[in-house]
Amino acid sequence: MHPERPSPVVAQPDLSEQEFRAALLRVAEWVLDYRARAVALPVLARVRPGDVLSKLPPEPPAQPEPLERWLHDLDEIILPGITHWNHPGFLAYFPTSSSAPGVLGELIAAALNANGMLWQTSPAATELEQLVLRWYARALGLPADWFGILTDTASTSTLMALAAARDSAGLPTREQGLAGQPPLVLYCSEEAHSSVEKAALVLGLGHRGVRRIPTDAEFRLRPDALEAAIREDFSAGRKPFAVVATVGTTSATAVDPVPEIAEICQRHGLWLHVDAAYAGSAAVAPEFRWALAGCERADSFVANPHKWLFTTMDCSALFTRRPAAFRHSFSLVPEYLRTDAEGAVDLMNYTFQLGRRFRALKLWFVFRGFGTEGIAARIRAHARLAREFAAWVDAHPQLERLAPVHFSVVCFRVHPEAVDDEAALEKLNAAVLEQVNATGKVFLSHTRLRGCYCLRLAIGNLGTSREQIRTAFELVCRAAGLC
Question: Over 80: is that where the pLDDT of 71 sits?
Fold first, then answer.
């Protein structure tokens, strides 16, 4: 005889409408409460590696658990291990502040669960994405007829752009790969984001396929050095194919001279990609549009709404004036994805990703919730706070600012008059950073400029006020023994 099998658990397919309504209201209460109390939480998570994991069961539950138990563990286990990017004292990296309209859009997108790989799989998702990206381009003062597509992050956007650039360089790379071809070379400044070099690794160029060009006194790529490097590579039998210019470098938020770089790219037939992931959105305020001068000549351009346009993670906008090049690189349509929707745009043909989230909805909500004038006002406020903080640094005899303040980032360090040794200055500033972040009141990050270790304060959260930046300044002075 066969051993008796346990009776299968009979369960309804999902929560009932009544259960879901109650749970949704309870979760909405939790979200509202969290947003209200985030300011009272320590910005930086106070856990050690493995702490969260050690408090969670190794096996999933066999039977359903009530919502209150989920939320209890969320509060007691998960929340202490969260670094609060929504905290007004989060002044590190590039803050990715979520707004209420963005959260609402994310919620509805989750409920719809749309996949915009083909037009017919979600027509509204495809067409809204095209519309909202035209809005974004207009808001930045860029060509509204650019083709746009939303990705997760600028790393993905840059990878896609450089893949299109590689396959547009006149070599049979799509059909034959890189074997037997002359070595491809792309160029960026020594201050460019690491995602450029990572893209080169993924695309098969290797580290040697990336030439980092020296920068000037303000950390901008030097056009003369770029021109010399390109000519040198052509002479050596290599194949230059692309240049990445940065508008708002990660460390100092420097703006590369895009008009001059565009001239060089046109002269040599190279693809120009502009990485404006952070600073691009600043151009919603017209007084910052100087930073995008020449960008209309780029072959591709990326800016991240999730950085300074108050849209929840993740949301990166990739634009191009050469959509056919992206189709050439990425279009591969199996029979089961063929449709007869004449005139439709199938966004899967412009990216290596098939499944595509409905990211456009939250960006649409942000534009409608704030309007371009409201967005510009918030950007201006952040830039004004950064200039005020920089003025405090400049006025203090034992603090030193190490880069111009173009947008909302200040790079500075403690530099007592009696200390000139760089190793000693690095040790001092690293200790100051650790003490400041240990307070839980603010979170700063660090970087290196010209080899000098420095502190870095970045403003981008909607809740950040003069109070938080004054607190940060006083904490630095106190940790350094300057007050």
Answer: yes
